[in-house]
Write a structure and sequence with these properties.
The protein has 9 helices and 9 strands. With about 280 residues, the protein is of the alpha/beta class. Helix 6 packs across helix 7 and helix 8 packs antiparallel against helix 9. The chain binds pantoate. The site of pantoate has 10 residues, from strand 2 and helix 6.
């Protein structure tokens, strides 16, 4: 495995892989890698011959009051995990390499970007779509891999790729969970033991919504109420939203549609967590 910091070195490595007839997979990350990220690498290894992991804590997707400065950056550990997972190349640029100009162009995807996470973190998705398109243009992958855990993010990235004719394919891989149901996230390291217990309310309430719509045949409106009733037992969870939406448009639904997604976000202690579950009827 090689690690490069500059765009020139990245392009040299990717070009020689291509010349050798390999197709390129890309797993964009902000580091602090966990088994969820490794599952993306494994998916990339199955479908592509040369796997590039990018590790870059992207400042433009953090609001000024968010956790940019304390975001975990265990680079040694990340590189060891990548090596063990069979990654071919790690691209770990610094902020000046990625953002040389303060007044640079950006990418905004209007569809699905102003609700849910977009409503609670107004500049977040502009930062995400901008960095993801920049990373795509730097790496030039054939296929890029994202986690379902960031459901709205992967949907926006799909819209961006379609709208701007970006010549690659997107794969969305299932959320990886701890044995008790907590969705893996780099931010879980912030949770104290009691907060971690309270955080289980998120995945539990998603499962309640899922089972209410599928096994019990309840309407999304009733399933959402069941979620809220469960969450009411956890005063430590400060909810931002808990909704059941159309999986393609993210519009909230009161009556069932074939592909839905239950989405939840809230703060547990000082840590903001998100999670979601697909509901197919
Ligand atoms: O999901 C993430 O880790 C980030 O939002 C991403 C896609 C790497 C962009 O910084």
């Amino acid at each position: 495995m090689k690690t490069v910091q500059t765009i020139d070195d990245l392009r040299t490595q990717v070009r020689s892989a291509r010349v050798a007839g390999k197709n390129i997979g890309c797993v964009p990350t902000m580091g602090a890698l966990h088994d969820g990220h490794i599952s993306l690498v494994e998916a990339a290894r199955k479908e592509t011959d040369f796997v590039v992991v990018t590790i870059f804590v992207n400042p433009t997707q953090f609001a000024p009051h968010e956790d940019l400065s304390k975001y975990p950056r265990p680079l040694e550990d990340d590189l060891r995990r990548c090596e063990n997972a069979g990654v071919d190349l790690v691209f770990n640029p610094d902020a000046d390499t990625v953002y040389p100009a303060d007044d640079a162009a950006f990418v905004e995807v209007p569809r699905c970007s102003t609700t849910l996470e977009g409503a609670h973190r107004p500049s977040h998705f502009r930062g995400v779509t901008t960095i993801v398109l920049k990373l795509f243009n730097m790496v030039l992958p054939d296929i890029a891999f994202f986690g379902q855990k960031d459901y709205q993010q992967q949907l926006l990235i799909r819209h961006m790729v379609d709208d701007l004719n970006v010549p690659l394919e997107i794969r969305t891989c299932p959320t990886v969970r701890e044995s008790d149901g907590l969705a893996m996230s780099s931010r879980n390291t912030y949770l104290s033991d009691p907060d971690r217990q309270s955080a289980l309310a998120l995945s539990q309430s998603l499962k309640i919504a899922h089972d209410a719509c599928t096994a019990d045949g309840k309407s999304p409106a009733d399933a959402r109420q069941a979620m809220l009733d469960h969450l009411a037992q956890f005063p430590d969870v400060k909810l931002d939203y808990a909704v059941i939406a159309d999986a393609n448009t993210l519009s909230e639904v009161a009556d069932a549609v074939p592909q839905m997604v239950a989405l939840i976000a809230g703060k547990v202690g000082s840590t903001r967590l998100i999670d979601n579950m697909l509901i197919t009827i």
